[in-house]
Structures are given as structure tokens and as C-alpha cells.
């Protein structure tokens, strides 16, 4: 049951009271598009509202970003000037951290602790890290062996240049953080950027755009397109003046985005879904593995692309693990994200709640054992009880499909070859974790796991310096680190004869 909620800041109250629309050329611009209600998932009530972009606005936003790019108002600054402004941007975001965290919790449903620590805290660290790249972008000098004209000498090198106008398409699970994952490397590279937030969660990105202006980023360099994914989002991705699409979202939509981008040879990066295995070996510390499964599997109510959702446990430890996990999960307190005592919060939308409950019905029909949870609690918002499923078999839907909710499926295995085969038996390949202190077995497993990230004795920590992305249908390309900068720049080869 909900206990006392934290007090909402007046600045947050004022922001949600507005009707919001796309942010173009330094301010929100009116639109003739449809009005859309923005919900508070913890209460099933209307929080705020937006005016969706109409087709003219999609055109206007691309033209604005193109103009800003071509004018050199951003790419023409020296790297040190851009770095200084981006560091100031990080400071401004940090100074408005509590406001952004509350806005995110009210709009997305997540815990205020998670919003403060990750959406804001980790994002600010990421901002400072990426600001530093601005002054470190480099090419190579290369020796060449060109035979003509006889006697000529050559100097050859590569330089990296900003790709141009970037469209960043963002999902609803970490609306602010994932937007920042795209905005910062794009700006560090000298690009201009348009963020299209998820239809459900536009508020923090709109506030971020205002803070960018306050920090000194010129108008038009960072725009926000508010609109329906299948209309405004699709039109943005297909626009011939967009040079790069950086998409995070579901695999089916990611495929459509990739196909649309390819039509114009627009560069693209796709960060997509996952059905991430956690392998608990027979020597694992069960207490730590249980804590890891809860942290890595139920964070943000399991609405995490890299969440641990298939837990493979060696049969001799399976019963102990399942019991300890079920007891710990049954103890978690369910409540609003603004309740600092609550550990499991509302899902983002009624649609997502219905989808998770449908998966639980399927699990029931397919014969999974419900160790704890399995239904919605008696609360007004979009909650689902944290659920542990035992007796799950590899062929069951709960072991194969991304549920994107607070549901952990636990499966026994007999030997490591079988565990590895089950872990790799998925069209996804975003992340995996191994729980063991047996270094030899861990080191044998790491190269054989088909996933973009493998964690050992933890699940889900990310670092701005460590590339992140998926194998197989979990995506194409990598974000973070040097990979992100390469993703927002083109390599130009230069060959000088003298
Ligand atoms: P989604 O694919 O439905 O939507 C993602 C974004 O795409 C939204 O902004 C949406 O409005 C937009 N969109 C929808 N149709 C579009 C189209 N035709 N053209 C252009 N844009 C379009 O995903 P979601 O439901 O918002 O998020 C959940 C999914 O995102 C999950 O599958 C999850 O695994 C994935 N995800 C992946 C990562 C990662 O880094 N790999 C991170 C977070 C979420």
C-alpha cells in the first residue's frame, strides 16, 4: 500500500500544467496536430498534454536542424568551445536534477530513487564523459604506395567529420537517459540532433531541450519532435535530409526503421530488444545471485532492454535458488514511484500492463509454476505484482519472448553445454550474465555466449566507456565510448600529392 509521497516541486507542477509541443529553433512551437494526454501511470490519471506534430512540423524541424548544421553555428565552433558548452550543459542538468527526476517519475512511473540515480545521476556522468570526446576526435596518417606520377610524393590521412542531421528515436523505459545517450555524442561530434521521444513520455526531453538553450547550445542545434511514432517518427526517419538515425526500441519497429533509412542510405544504429539469460553455475553464491536477479531483472519493473529475464540455474542449486528468490521477491513493496519506500512501481502504460498480464495468462496455460505474484495488485495505477515463474521450459513463451515487465522465469539445467545451448537459443543477443567464481569455466563461457555484453557476477551495470549494443536481432552498431563518436561521424580520406 502507498505511504507518504514526496512533495512535488513547484517547477514540476508548472511544467506539467503546460500543453507541450515540438521544440524547434529554441522554443516549443504551436501545431495543428491532435492533442494527446500524457498519463501518470501510478494513478491512472492525466498528468499533462501534448500537441502532436503535423507533417508541416516534421518538415520544419528537419529544415531547422539542417539550417543549424549548415550555418556552422555549432560544427564551426572549436572543439574546446563545444566541450566547454557541453560541460556547462551537464552542470545545468545536474542543477535541475531533482526537477527532472520528479518529472520522469510522474510521467514514466519509475522509482524516484532510480530517476535520481540513473536518469539524472548516470546521465550527468555520461554527459561529462561525452563532452570530453569533443576535443579527442582524431583520424590517422597512412603511408601509401601510389606509383604515378613518377617521383611524386604523397601525404595521406583520414579525418572524421560530423555526419550532419541526426534523428534520435527514443523508447519510454528510460526517456531522459536514452535521449542523452544520443544527444551528447551527436553534439560532441559536431552534428545537430532531433530527438523523437516515445509517445507516452515526452516531458523530460522537452525540459532537457530548454536546459540546452540555458547552457548556451544555439537554437536549432537540439530540437525535439513530439508526435506519434508511426506517423511523425516514420516521416522523420524517411526524410532525405536526415543523415543518421539512432534508434532505440523494439525489434519489429527497429527493422522498419532500418529499411526506411536504407532507402536514402541514411546511416543507422539500432539498439533493440533482448531476452537476456543469467547463468547460475553450481558454485555460485546463491545469496548474491538472488540479489543480482532482483537488481538485474526487476529494475524499472523489468522494463529494461538488458534485463535478466531467463534465469538458468544448475539443477543441484535450483530448488534453493528458486525458494530464496521467491521469498525475496514476495517481500518487495509495490507502490507509486513518488513513494520512497516502494520497490516495485507502476508500468509505463495501461497497454504495457495489459501486455504483461497477457504473458502471465500464457505462462499459466503453458504450465509454469507461479512461485509468487502473477496478477495486478489492488492499486489504481498500471501495476503488476513482481512474479517468479518456476518449472519453465525452454519452449515456453516466458522463456522466449521479451515480456518487458516484472517477471523472472527460472529454468534448471544439468550441464554447462546444455546451459550454453539454451542461453544461445534465442533470436535476441543483447546481454547475458554468468554467476560463478570458477574462473576457468567463466573464461571458457564468455567467448561462446552470443551477446553484445557479458557480465560476470553482476547484471546490468553500464559505463559510458564500454560499448553497448546487440548481437543477432538485438541490434546493429554500438553506442557509448569511441563507437558512439564513430557512429556520428563520417571518415574522409585525404591524399595530397606534392
Ligand atoms: P517501440 O519500438 O514501440 O518505440 C520506440 C520508439 O520508436 C518510440 O519513440 C516510438 O514512438 C517510435 N516509433 C514507433 N514506430 C515508429 C516508426 N514506424 N518509425 C519511427 N519511429 C517509430 O519501443 P518501446 O515500446 O517504446 O520500447 C520498448 C522496447 O525498446 C523494448 O523492446 C526494449 O527492449 C527496447 N529497448 C532497447 C534498448 C537497447 O538499448 N537495446 C533500450 C531500451 C529499450
Fold topology:
Layout lengths: L9 H7 L2 E2 L2 E2 L2 E2 L6 E6 L4 E7 L3 H17 L7 H17 L1 H12 L3 H22 L7 E2 L11 E9 L2 E5 L5 H14 L3 E5 L6 H13 L6 E3 L4 H9 L6 E5 L2 H13 L3 E5 L4 E5 L5 H13 L9 E7 H16 L19 H17 L2 E4 L14 E4 L6 H4 L6 E7 L2 H9 L3 E2 L1 E5 L3 H7 L7 E4 L14 E2 L2 E2 L4 H7 L1 E9 L1
Parallel strand pairs: 1-5, 8-9, 8-11, 9-10, 11-12, 13-14, 13-19, 14-17, 16-17, 19-20
Antiparallel strand pairs: 2-3, 4-5, 6-7, 7-23, 12-22, 15-16, 18-21
Helix pairs in contact: 3-5, 3-7, 4-5, 4-7, 5-6, 10-11
The structure holds nicotinamide-adenine-dinucleotide.
Distance between the termini: 78 Å
Structural class: alpha/beta
Ligand inventory: nicotinamide-adenine-dinucleotide
Major sheet size, sense and barrel closure: 7 strands, mixed
Q: What is the count of β-strands?
A: 23
Give the full name of the CATH homologous superfamily of the largest domain.
Answer: Aldehyde Dehydrogenase, Chain A, domain 1
**CATH architecture designation of the largest domain:** 3-Layer(aba) Sandwich
Structure annotation, total helices: 16
Helix content: 25-40%
Question: What attributes characterize this protein structure?
Answer:
globular; alpha/beta; binds nicotinamide-adenine-dinucleotide; 6-stranded mixed sheet; 7-stranded mixed sheet; 498 residues; Aldehyde Dehydrogenase, Chain A, domain 1; 2 domains; single chain; Aldehyde Dehydrogenase, Chain A, domain 2
Amino acid at each position: 500500500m502507498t505511504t507518504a509521497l514526496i512533495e512535488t516541486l513547484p517547477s514540476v507542477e508548472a511544467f506539467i500544467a503546460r500543453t507541450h509541443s515540438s521544440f524547434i529553433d529554441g522554443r516549443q512551437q504551436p501545431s495543428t496536430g491532435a492533442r494527446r494526454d500524457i498519463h501518470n501511470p501510478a494513478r491512472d490519471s492525466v498528468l499533462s498534454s501534448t500537441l502532436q506534430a503535423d507533417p508541416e512540423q516534421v518538415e520544419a524541424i528537419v529544415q531547422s536542424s539542417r539550417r543549424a548544421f549548415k550555418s556552422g553555428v555549432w560544427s564551426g565552433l572549436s572543439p574546446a568551445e563545444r566541450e566547454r558548452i557541453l560541460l556547462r550543459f551537464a552542470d545545468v542538468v545536474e542543477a535541475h536534477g531533482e526537477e527532472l527526476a520528479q518529472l520522469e517519475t510522474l510521467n514514466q512511473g519509475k522509482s524516484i530513487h532510480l530517476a535520481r540515480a540513473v536518469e539524472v545521476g548516470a546521465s550527468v556522468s555520461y554527459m561529462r564523459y561525452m563532452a570530453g570526446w569533443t576535443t579527442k576526435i582524431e583520424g590517422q596518417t597512412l603511408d601509401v604506395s601510389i606509383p604515378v606520377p613518377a617521383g611524386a610524393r604523397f601525404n595521406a590521412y583520414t579525418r572524421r567529420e560530423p555526419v550532419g542531421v541526426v534523428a534520435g528515436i527514443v523508447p519510454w523505459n528510460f526517456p531522459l537517459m536514452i535521449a542523452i545517450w544520443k544527444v551528447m555524442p551527436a553534439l560532441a561530434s559536431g552534428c545537430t540532433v532531433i530527438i523523437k521521444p516515445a509517445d507516452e513520455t515526452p516531458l523530460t526531453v522537452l525540459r532537457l531541450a530548454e536546459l540546452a538553450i540555458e547552457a548556451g547550445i544555439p537554437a536549432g542545434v537540439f530540437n525535439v519532435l513530439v508526435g506519434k511514432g508511426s506517423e511523425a517518427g516514420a516521416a522523420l526517419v524517411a526524410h532525405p535530409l536526415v543523415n543518421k538515425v539512432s534508434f532505440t526500441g523494439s525489434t519489429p519497429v527497429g527493422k522498419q526503421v532500418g529499411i526506411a533509412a536504407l532507402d536514402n542510405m541514411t546511416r543507422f544504429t539500432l539498439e533493440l530488444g533482448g531476452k537476456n539469460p543469467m547463468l547460475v553455475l553450481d558454485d555460485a553464491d546463491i545469496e548474491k545471485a538472488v540479489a543480482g536477479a532482483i537488481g538485474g531483472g526487476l529494475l524499472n519493473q523489468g522494463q529494461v532492454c538488458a534485463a535478466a529475464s531467463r534465469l538458468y540455474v544448475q539443477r543441484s542449486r535450483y530448488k534453493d535458488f528458486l525458494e530464496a528468490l521467491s521469498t525475496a521477491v514476495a517481500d518487495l513493496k509495490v507502490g507509486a514511484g513518488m513513494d520512497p519506500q516502494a520497490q516495485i512501481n507502476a508500468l509505463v502504460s495501461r497497454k504495457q500492463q495489459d501486455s504483461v498480464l497477457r504473458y502471465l495468462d500464457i505462462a499459466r496455460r503453458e504450465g509454469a509454476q507461479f512461485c509468487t505474484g502473477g496478477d495486478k495488485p489492488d492499486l489504481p495505477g498500471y501495476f503488476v505484482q513482481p512474479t517468479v515463474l518456476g518449472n519453465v521450459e525452454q519452449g515456453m513463451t516466458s522463456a522466449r519472448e521479451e515480456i518487458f515487465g516484472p517477471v523472472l522465469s527460472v529454468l534448471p539445467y544439468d550441464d554447462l553445454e546444455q546451459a550454453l545451448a539454451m542461453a544461445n537459443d534465442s533470436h535476441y543477443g543483447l546481454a547475458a550474465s554468468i554467476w560463478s567464481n570458477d574462473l576457468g569455466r567463466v573464461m571458457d563461457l564468455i567467448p561462446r555466449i552470443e551477446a553484445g555484453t557479458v557480465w560476470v557476477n553482476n547484471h546490468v551495470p553500464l559505463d559510458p566507456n564500454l560499448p553497448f549494443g546487440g548481437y543477432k536481432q538485438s541490434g546493429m552498431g554500438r553506442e557509448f565510448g569511441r563507437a558512439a563518436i564513430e557512429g556520428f561521424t563520417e571518415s574522409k580520406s585525404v591524399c595530397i600529392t606534392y
